[in-house]
Task: inverse folding
């Protein structure tokens, strides 16, 4: 493990300022932002960071993705990702049938009002971008500024930055017990323990479970299963084809390395675990692909699933728990956690350390993401 300084017994002897539970994109990005401003421990239950949601995402940066409440975080994160070479241009396209004309127009109007680059396009323009799209798909909302994200590269960037700032990583450390003692948290896991003044709950799908260990009320953060299949198609997808969504949010597809990634855009409530795809969801993905594109499936090459965790209002949760001293939430980041990671982590660092806002975060309203809203 080279991404963070792996903890030794000596590393854990002195109290930490902040312990972050979870080393996925959320935990890694926040550890990087905290840097040398605090002594930081990242506690990860798995053998490696990013094993679950972070490592299974078909990462993209789409200005409208996640809904209006997420747009400010996405727009604020874009320059950071672009400047570090982590974005590869790929336009976004949301398509509808004849009966969906008003809905597609309303979609464009809603997001254009928020500063998203988006416009209506007609059937001819859609067909030029997505050859083989069935004739019924005749209305489109086009987003030229979309991009693929190097999700693994971003995660490694943050882990390396956290290491340079003195962050310490402890893997295979699933928290079994936590208690407040002398103004600090005492954390215990099989074979180890540590102290920290503040604990950050960045546990993703496990966030409500982790909250319970610290005596906090669960916020209703629900793990939802998302399925993706990789298809070899005839014809092969054009490399520059847009990331394409159905207006009903019941499928999306995009090319990747000569293959087509397809998702039924499923959100099936599940439990927090090492999730696997269900055969029915795989079949649904292929069926929806066949209803959208007049292409032949030459082979189903891969299938996988991941958990996306949402709060009840589908907005992320950033801030101190209103009832439990020393517990900070950084969770509920749905399927948009990678594309919003830079702004989310910067904002969370500022809230944790009571730092002023900067150019990245000055337009963000932290109150809309506060855990006290539930």
Result:
């Amino acid at each position: 493990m080279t991404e963070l300084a792996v903890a030794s017994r000596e590393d854990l002897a002195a109290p930490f300022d902040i312990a972050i539970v979870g080393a996925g994109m959320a935990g890694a990005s926040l550890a990087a932002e905290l840097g040398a401003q605090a002594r930081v421990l990242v506690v990860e239950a798995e053998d490696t960071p990013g094993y679950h949601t972070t490592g299974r995402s078909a990462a993209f940066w789409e200005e409208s993705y996640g809904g209006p409440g997420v747009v400010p975080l996405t727009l604020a994160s874009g320059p950071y990702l672009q400047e570090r070479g982590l974005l590869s241009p790929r336009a976004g396209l949301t398509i509808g049938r004849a009966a969906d004309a008003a809905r597609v127009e309303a979609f464009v109007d809603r997001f254009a009002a928020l500063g998203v680059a988006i416009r209506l396009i007609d059937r001819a323009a859609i067909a030029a971008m997505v050859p083989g799209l069935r004739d019924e798909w005749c209305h489109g909302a086009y987003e030229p500024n979309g991009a693929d994200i190097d999700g693994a590269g971003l995660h490694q960037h943050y882990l390396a930055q956290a290491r340079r700032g003195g962050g310490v990583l402890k893997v295979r450390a699933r928290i079994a017990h936590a208690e407040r003692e002398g103004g600090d948290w005492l954390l215990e896991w099989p074979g180890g323990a540590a102290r920290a003044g503040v604990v950050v709950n960045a546990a993703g799908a496990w966030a409500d479970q982790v909250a319970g260990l610290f005596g906090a009320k669960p916020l209703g953060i629900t793990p939802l299963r998302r399925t993706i299949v990789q298809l070899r198609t005839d014809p092969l997808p054009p490399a520059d084809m847009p990331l394409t969504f159905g207006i009903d949010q019941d499928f999306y597809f995009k090319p990747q390395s000569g293959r087509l990634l397809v998702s039924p855009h499923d959100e099936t409530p599940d439990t927090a675990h090492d999730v696997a795809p269900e055969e029915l969801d795989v079949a649904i993905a292929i069926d929806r692909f066949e209803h959208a594109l007049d292409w032949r499936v030459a082979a189903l090459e891969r299938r996988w699933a991941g958990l996306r965790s949402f709060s009840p209002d589908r907005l992320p949760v950033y801030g101190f728990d209103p009832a439990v001293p020393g517990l900070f939430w950084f969770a509920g980041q749905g399927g948009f956690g990678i594309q919003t990671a830079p702004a989310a982590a910067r904002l969370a660092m500022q809230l944790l350390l009571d730092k002023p806002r900067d150019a990245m975060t000055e337009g963000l309203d932290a109150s809309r993401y506060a855990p006290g809203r539930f």
User: Anything to note?
Assistant: Residues 151-164 form the longest helix (14 residues). The longest strand covers residues 296-310. The chain has a mean pLDDT of 94.
